[in-house]
Every structure is written in structure tokens, then in C-alpha cells.
Design a protein that fits this description.
Elements lengths: L1 H14 L12 H11 L4 H14 L3 H5 L3 H8 L6 H16 L8 H5 L6 H12 L8 H10 L12 H10 L4 H17 L18 H4 L19 H15 L3 E2 H5 L5 H13 L4 E4 L2 E3 L3
Antiparallel strand pairs: 1-3, 2-3
Helix pairs in contact: 1-11, 2-3, 2-8, 5-6, 9-11, 13-15
Length: 289
């Protein structure tokens, strides 16, 4: 473990990005907001939305006092807007059940609406400097290569990966918290999915994948997510109209965004089912209140 800990931590100390949710003054709420926004979304897209979000809602109580539709509106084009509803629901629970303070206990975090194992571990580690294994896509890829000698991890997190992550976790909580974010940063900046910069990697001499000759992935083909022409694109166009309207929108306005009436209706029905859109009268819709 020492052969991995020391070089990765030293690399992070000099190479980490200066991000607002990592600043010493960042509150646990700021860390939680960043973790919700960063799921499946690049940092450069998150930063402006994150900064505006915290200006408007600097505390969970501030967000909870506003309508969930306002969270969806402020989410803008980050994608996967159900995250906005889940963050609003988590903020409401924090206000009602935890006195407005993000809980520091992992089990309490995990019990919040919209918070899964990854987010609970990340907030406990990054906001409260606790010892938890934090397994996102970047971390899993680093461990797959450095420890298992595989180019990519399995499509879903396995029990073996969790055992590896826990075995590699430093004993001291503060060091463990830094290790968790350092490995994540290594995966984001150096040990990337498509073009890893092995020459810059601080653990290249101990990487099992490199030692094995960097064998190509042997598992099922890894397919990128498509967007153009999908229901997800239609949903985004419909939500864009509703976000900009600041009031109820008639069906005729929504009909303009997509020619395929069947697909458009299916996307709208999905938005209603997900709680992202409310029908207020026959053929009239708005963001949830």
C-alpha cells in the first residue's frame, strides 16, 4: 500500500485542481451540492451552475424554502435533472430532520432522499474528513489498472472492487480522506478512460496494467451514451421551454420543440411521471411547485 499511497498523495499535493468545493471554507452543504452536480457531468459545466446555486441557496434551508421547480430551473442544462429534485428533497430532509445542518454520520447521510452509497461516502469523506472508501468511475478505473491489471473495471461496481478500495484505504481518517480525493483526481487528469498519460503517472512503475504490457479490454464493448434523437434530448427541449417561461405553458408551445408527436408525448409523459413537470389543466404544464 505504501508504494501507492506516498506517490499518489505527493502528486495530489502539487497537481490537484483548485476547485471551490475543495477550499477550506467550503461547507458540507457546498460539498454535497458539488457531488450531486458532478455525477456524470464534467467539472467545467458544473462550475458556473454550482457557483450561482450557492449564491442563491447557501444553505439546505434556503433551498428547501423554495419550490422544487425552481431547483429544476436553476439546474439549467447540466442534464439528468432528476438530480435537482433529489437535491431539493435532501435539503428538505436536512432542514426538517437535522436542524438545517448536513449530517456528519454516514448512516444519516445515506438515509437522505436521493443519497446513495457513493454520495454518502463522498460527503462524509470530503466534508467531514472521515475514513470511507469512495468509489466513482475514476477511482474504479485507477484501481482496475494499478491493482488488477485491467484496462477498465466491470460495468457495475463489484464486491471485489469494494474489498480492494477498503484494503487500500489509509488507517488515519485525515489521510484516508485525502487519499480518496487524490485517487479520484488521478483518474480524472492522468489515468483517463481513452488516453491515459502513463508518462505522467506517479505510480506507473507499480501499475499492474503497465507491467502486463497494457493489454486491451477483453470484456463487453464499452458503448458511449448517445443523445441526438433520443427521448432524453426531447425531454431536455421540453424542459428548456418550461424553465424559460416562469409560468404555465400551453401544449401548443411544447409541440413546437419536436416534430415526432409520439416521441414528444412519450417524453412529456416521462417528465410528468418523474415529477419534473406538473399538468395544471388539460394541455397546460409547469415546473413543480
Amino acid at each position: 500500500m505504501e508504494t501507492l499511497h506516498r506517490p499518489v498523495l505527493a502528486w495530489y499535493a502539487t497537481s490537484a485542481r483548485d476547485l471551490p468545493w475543495r477550499a477550506p471554507e467550503a461547507t458540507p452543504w457546498a460539498v454535497m451540492v458539488s457531488e450531486f452536480m458532478l455525477q456524470q457531468t464534467p467539472v467545467k459545466r458544473v462550475l458556473p451552475v454550482y457557483e450561482e446555486w450557492l449564491r442563491r441557496w447557501p444553505t439546505p434551508a434556503a433551498l428547501a424554502a423554495d419550490a422544487p421547480g425552481e431547483a429544476v430551473r436553476a439546474w439549467g442544462r447540466l442534464g439528468y435533472p432528476r438530480r435537482a429534485l433529489r437535491l431539493h428533497a435532501a435539503a428538505t430532509a436536512i432542514r426538517d430532520e437535522h436542524g438545517g445542518e448536513v449530517p456528519s454520520v454516514h448512516a444519516d447521510l445515506l438515509a437522505l432522499p436521493g443519497v446513495g452509497e457513493y454520495t454518502a461516502a463522498a460527503v462524509a469523506s470530503f466534508a467531514f474528513r472521515q475514513r470511507h472508501a469512495v468509489l466513482d468511475t475514476n477511482v474504479r478505473r485507477v484501481f482496475a489498472r494499478a491493482v488488477d491489471g485491467q484496462e477498465y473495471p466491470a460495468n457495475a461496481t463489484t464486491a471485489a472492487e469494494r474489498r480492494t478500495a477498503n484494503a487500500l484505504l489509509p488507517d488515519e481518517p485525515e489521510t484516508a480522506a485525502t487519499w480518496a480525493v487524490a485517487v479520484m483526481e488521478l483518474g480524472a487528469l492522468v489515468c483517463t478512460a481513452r488516453s491515459p498519460e502513463c508518462g505522467r503517472c506517479p505510480i506507473r512503475s507499480d501499475c499492474a496494467w503497465r507491467q502486463a504490457g497494457s493489454p486491451p479490454h477483453q470484456g463487453p464493448a464499452r458503448r458511449g451514451q448517445t443523445y441526438a434523437g433520443t427521448d432524453r434530448q426531447v425531454r431536455g427541449k421540453l424542459l428548456a421551454v418550461l424553465r424559460e417561461a416562469h409560468d404555465s405553458v400551453p401544449q401548443a408551445e411544447l409541440d413546437k420543440v419536436w416534430e415526432d408527436a409520439v416521441q414528444r408525448a412519450r417524453a412529456l409523459d416521462g417528465l410528468v411521471a418523474d415529477g419534473l413537470v406538473e399538468p395544471v389543466a388539460p394541455g397546460v404544464y409547469r415546473l413543480p411547485r
